[in-house]
Amino acid sequence: MKSVLYSLLCGIIVSQALEAAGAVENFSPLNLQGLTFIHDPSTILSDGQRYYVFGTGAGIPVRTSADLVHWEGAGTVFAKPPAWTLKQIPDFRGHIWAPDVVQVHGKYFLYYSVSTFGKQVSAIGLTTSPRLDQTMTNFLWTDVGVVISSAKGDAYNTIDPSVLQDHDGRLWLAFGSYWQGIFLIELDPESGLRLDRQTPPAHLAWNNSIEAACLTQHGKYYYLFVNWGECCKGTNSTYQVRVGRAEKITGPYLDRDGNDLAGGGGTLFLQSSGHYIGPGHIGILRDHGTDWFSYHYYDAMTQGRSRLALGKLNWPDDWPVPAM
């Protein structure tokens, strides 16, 4: 009995130490059911009746759930890409990347990426709708056009949008992939478009391989999740999630050791474990008093297809940690 109690005590101490360090080993998400295949999932959003998530693909695929566990398809946002996308991005072939969504003043703003793999000629677009439920009479996605774009030689690549409405009502968009990293611009909460085109984007984070930013706010801090490593290679993907926090949304974002994310810092939040390979594209959902984080992973049980995942989130010492 003494040895059993000793083992249990050691396990608790190790678990607490890992949580205090911001890392959880062998984390497993909830067991989701139904149509969970998705890549680059957006933040999960509720309209009060159902939950919605948007992903990479032709037309922007939509998934919906009544309980966060059982998921089904809900068509796509676009029947065909907006005309501007084909004109502005010459090599674009209709595969829209990494959307994100927010509700502002009773309207849903959906941001999405238009690009081609490994190219810097990219753009982030915006489409809006008063409803997410396609059965409602006033459901309609109306495309607004380009929010920000990038060209060869720019400091950034305008893909992977992450939108956040601050507690004070201001609206912000983080974005970026490779090149000089992750950047931030302010948006107009009324139109959803860039507020001031004369102010250059703020630089938030850098690594040799970095993308898939997620901005969130908890207490007095802003948090920036990013992905290091490579995606889109099935079980050979090397994605891992890093995080830092700041007292101002424009930064600097520091990791637990005080290293600036703009200089390559970042505390490990989530990495491959078991058949959950290359976790990435974090989104934060606060729902009925519980904090959740969503992401995709490459499932070794299904030949590396990307799936939606969901886990609970704890905040010990004001740092995000997956809840075991």
Question: What labels describe this entry?
Answer:
single chain; Tachylectin-2, Chain A; 5-stranded mixed beta sheet; globular; 324 residues; mainly beta; 5-stranded antiparallel beta sheet
Please characterize this protein's 3D structure:
With 324 residues, the chain is mostly beta strands. It has a single domain (28-322), classed as Glycosyl hydrolase domain, family 43 (Tachylectin-2, Chain A, 5 Propeller), CATH 2.115.10.20. Helix content is 8%, strand content 43%. The chain is built from two helices and 22 strands. It has helices at 2-20, 83-88, and strands at residues 33-34, 45-46, 51-54, 57-58, 61-65, 70-76, 95-104, 107-114, 122-129, 142-150, 162-165, 171-175, 182-187, 202-205, 210-218, 221-228, 240-246, 267-270, 276-287, 290-299, 305-314, 321-322. The strands form five sheets. The chain has a five-stranded mixed sheet, with no helix packed on it. Strands 4-7-8-9-10 form a five-stranded antiparallel sheet. A hairpin with a 2-residue loop joins β19 and β20.
Strand arrangement, major sheet: 1-6-5-3-2
- Report the portion of residues in β strands: 35-45%
Spell out the CATH superfamily.
Glycosyl hydrolase domain, family 43
What is the mean predicted local confidence, pLDDT? Answer: 91
The geometry reads as globular
Separate helix tally: 2
Structural class: mainly beta
Intertermini distance: 25 Å
CATH architecture: 5 Propeller
* Number of spatially distinct domains: 1
- By CATH reckoning, the class would read Mainly Beta
Q: What is the CATH topology assignment?
A: Tachylectin-2, Chain A
| Radius of gyration over C-alpha positions, nearest whole angstrom | 19 Å
Indicate the percent of residues in helices: under 10%
